[in-house]
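Review session, final week

We close the course with one last complete record, chosen because it touches almost every idea we covered. It is G-type lectin S-receptor-like serine/threonine-protein kinase, a protein from Sesamum radiatum with 665 residues. Go through it on your own first, then we will talk.
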Amino acid sequence: MQASITTLVLLMFVNCLGSQSQQFSSLDTLKPGDRLNSSSQLVSANGTFSLGFALFGAPGSAYLALSHTNSIYYPVWIGNREQPAFTSQDPFLTVDINGKLVIGHGINGGESIELYAGESSKQNNVSVTLLETGNLVVKEMSSSNSEVILWQSFDHPTDTLLPGMKLSVNRRTGRKRILTSWFGPDDPAPGVFTLEWDPSEDRLLVRRRGVLYWTSGKLKDYYDEWGGFRIKAFDNIPTKPDPANLNYNFTVGTSGDEEYFMYSLINVQALTPNTRNISGIRLDYEGYIYDRDRPTIAKTGSCYGYDEAHTNPGCELREQPKCRNDGQTFDLTSGDFRHVNGTPAPAVYDSNSNLSMSDCREKCWNDCECVGYTSGNQSGCVYWRGKNLEFVRSASPDNSPEAANTFVLVSTSSRQAKKRHVEIISVAVSVPVLVAMSAIVTLFVMRKIKKGKRNEVQLHDLLTLDGYTETYELESGGANNHHDLRLFTHASIQSATNNFSSDYKLGQGGFGPVYKGKTSEGQDIAVKLLSRQSGQGLLEFKTELILISNLQHVNLVKLLGFCVHGDDKMIIYDYMPNKSLDFFLFSPSEREQLNWQRRFNIVEGIAQGLLYLHKYSRLRIIHRDLKPSNILLDKDMNPKISDFGLARIFKQNASEANTNRRVGT
């Protein structure tokens, strides 16, 4: 079903565009005039690596991404990380008539993004090939029928060092090949951390915004007692008794003016089948060095600048604020800051979009009043300031890293530990008194608590949504992961909709009524009220919240939050002033507004949204209830796919699945 829908929409899209260029889906070479578009890929000869367009960051932003085929991990190389293309302009990769390797645009023109400037005098002999090593090469055939490499991606690394790729320094020109982290978890733009080779000391260096942050120590020969053989290893990267960690052959060398560091795999068979094809040293956006999202090679992101040699060797010392001391760190957890009287503590927002998560930590660390921080959803930072604030951890039973969202200042020094010990004793003495008082109060309000128990359980269930699962896990409860969804109070929704006035009613669907509203901040919203007679229950409600909160695309409706009050369940969306597509299709007076250009734009937008759901989103999703009433239109008549209550999540490698439920329209 998924493949047929995607193919149908893409065929409609391609036919409408009238493209005459040859498209590719599984070849390893691109020839002059060929186009690699968003629905095709280059695949290396044995299928290890794939090259195609992927969506990251802002909705509609497309990046040329090179990845391990069928891997769920981050791409190993991004071709246009500093200048995204846009899905609305139908980007494609090609070798143009001048022999340049460029990302062009099929719609609305747009400036081409140049990857290789073209130095060949024989443009017709230039081709682009994705090698089995993960190296994308531009080459030409010489007069003697030998291949000459003109450009290669290995000379332009992004955040991952593959086997055979070099970190290097040119002594004559000073040019360096370095790794540069992503700016954020979903933003491939250059970040604040770099990893480079220091040939004068035979060591690796991590810099943060150009300032030395961490060093690996010197690369030396060691005798490994566990394995009984000699290996090369760094002083500050301890080896482990694991075949995967003893399987690297580090090489230091000189080629002309260039001094370099590289590595290769000694024995690929020593790796497990799941990790055999995903080797690569990756510099994370927080400064950590990973072996492709598996073992942590170095905890460089945990450097605070004081003497950490006993726990995190390699961190550079630097001057500290007088209010910070050895043993203080930020702990990633979930919960909220409160005043001593129990009221929530307000946050301080910094909307500077140039601030990374690492910048947020640095600013909080240097502010003696700052006790915690988090990211402002990839747009600045959020801080909590005040020495008398206390952090109340979430009551959720889920303590996994995925559920945590706030960095809280903690101390592990003996003095702080002793202080906590005294506090624990004080609490222990007072507990019996508090229990007795609580028992009296509990008996008095037992009826009210019992009456609200079901709503409380439902609300807790919604606040601990399962985010990255298959549908069967949703139906069985799944694992609980926290999502950054705003919980609206019932009173605020009543006020926004004038107590659900009929004058504010936008329409009525099978799920229930939809109302227009305006928040106290002045934002227009649409409130979808799930009717008790709709047949949709908590599962559909959870499904819609989960999916839309994890998806970001210009052609998907934007979710603002939700509200639960008694048996009423509400989802709050961004308001779409032009209602839905059926309003125009089935109204003789409104239908005239749908000229052919507008119809084309709407069909194209729906196709882009479906392609994202089926292929490029973090979750592989089939909507299962796509119809005109579920296509909303914004003020510019751009389509937004909505209503994901009946959607189905597929496994990444699945092309079909069974269901026991009859759904759809």
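Two points worth writing down before the exam:
Residues 411 and 417 are 8 Å apart (CA to CA).
The chain has four domains: 21-156, 157-318, 319-412, 471-650.
Good luck, everyone.
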